[in-house]
Amino acid sequence: MDVHAVLDDLVAEQQALDAVVAPLTPDQWSLPTPSPRWSISDQIGHLTYFDTTAALAITDPEAFTAHRTELAGQLVSDELALDELTLGAFRLLTPLEQLTEWRHRRDELERVGRTLDDSTRVEWYGPSMGAKSFLTARLMEVWAHGQDICDAVGAERPPTDRLRHIAQLGVITRGWSYLVRGEEPPDTQVLVELAAPSGAVWTWGEAGPNRVIGPAIDFCLVVTQRRHVEDTALVVEGDDARDWMSKAQAFAGGPTTGPAPRGTR
After folding, report:
1. How far apart are CA 185 and CA 147, in angstroms?
2. What is the DSSP secondary structure assignment for residue 259, as one 8-state letter?
3. Cβ(212)–Cβ(245) under 8 Å?
4. How far apart are CA 93 and CA 19, in angstroms?
5. pLDDT band at 263, cuts 50/70/90?
6. pLDDT at 264 over 70
7. What is the pTM for the complete model shown?
8. Is 93 domain-assigned?
9. Domain end: 153, 183, 201, which one?
10. Who is most buried in 22, 61, 83, 249, counting CB within 10 A?
11. Cβ(189)–Cβ(132) below 8 Å
12. Does residue 58 lie within any of the structural domains?
């Protein structure tokens, strides 16, 4: 799959989320979501902010680098202050204006994304990323934050084989899930065997004592920390596989733990 096919899937994922939020009433945009402190409006604001900076990173790497440095200089440990930096201006808009702004910013990201090729590297908030990985990370963000919105309003998004992008990201970030916690990643293999929405079977790794087997959507929910593994149909065997699923984190930032099992909340 080339970079433009990944971009096509990103756009399709954005449209799937748009179909969920567009019919919401203004009052519903204020509903809380499973992400602490964040409403539905804030979830869309987060996507809008980083779609904007993603387009900047593609079109003007020097300007993006300057923005990154400025943002890092303003960051503090106060999460409310960080929310104000990234969401403050968006929160002043009406829900209709917010929807329009998100659509505009993601359209711009698609437009500039069409200029990428498979060899392009894009500056980002951590190390630079290959173009396909960069767009895959954007797709993961849309899907994960969209899940928070769906959970808030009880909406259903039919799963598609676009989940393969997120599953792949979940697999390759196994080591990162340890490094972000200051731990040494295990050198063992974990077989990941997932049932795709289409009925296909996706497999990573080699057979052995450590295995994660089950629906692709459940694996994606766990690695994006939208569900605890105990609340899914995943079968997890082996100490290293269980340890990984307890701390899997397919996204950048500091270490986070994800939700507790529903029975303990």
Report:
1. 28
2. P
3. yes
4. 20
5. low
6. no
7. 0.94
8. yes
9. 153
10. 249
11. no
12. yes
